[in-house]
Amino acid sequence: MCDTSVACIPRAAVYDAPRMAMSSKLGELLLNAQEWGLGRLSRLSGQQGPRHLRTGMEGEQAALFWLRRSSIVVVARRWTSARLRGDVDLIGWDGATLCFFEVKARTARDMTPAESQVDDEKRRILRSLARAYLHNFPAAQRAAIPVRFDVVAVYLLGGSPEVHHFPGAFGWR
User: Fold this and answer.
1) Rounded to an integer, what distance in angstroms lies between the CA atom of residue 169 and that of residue 151?
2) What whole-number distance in Å separates Cα of residue 98 and Cα of residue 14?
3) Tens place of pLDDT for every residue, the chain, 173 residues?
4) Structural domains of the chain sorted by starting position, each given as residue range(s) with its CATH number in brackets
5) Which of 2, 5, 47, 115 lies at 20 to 30 Å from 109 by C-alpha?
């Protein structure tokens, strides 16, 4: 059962559907075309909004395409709950595992790496949002779904983005 605030893909469809091989020329070409088109639209829309928000959006977009190239099926972007504060940057399936991704983007390398900015408070918020998201699944399935919390650090230093993926960066506790 899904509500309108959730991008729902039936669990069976995720597990049973043959995954598109990202190594194929056609799949890679399609992803490159989508990435180019979204980047072009972003540039055409002008310099709207604060710089840090634009950096965050660019980082999320870079992470999205990087994860898709890594055969992760992304099912939601910037997912929110009406009852809870905060959002989950990306939600996707890595095989049978449901992953909640927190993306941290930077335009420069500082003394502290981007991934270290996911503090205890942000982890608590992400765990609460993950529980809310899981409530959209039937109770019998919910307990059987393996969950992972990942952090994706994106450095936008000019040229192509540098992406670092940290699977299982933290757990439920």
Assistant:
1) 6
2) 10
3) 444 444 444 443 343 334 444 456 666 766 677 776 666 555 545 556 777 778 888 999 999 999 999 999 999 999 999 999 999 999 999 999 999 999 999 988 888 888 888 999 999 999 999 999 999 999 889 889 999 999 999 999 888 899 999 999 999 98
4) 22-170 (3.40.1350.10)
5) 47
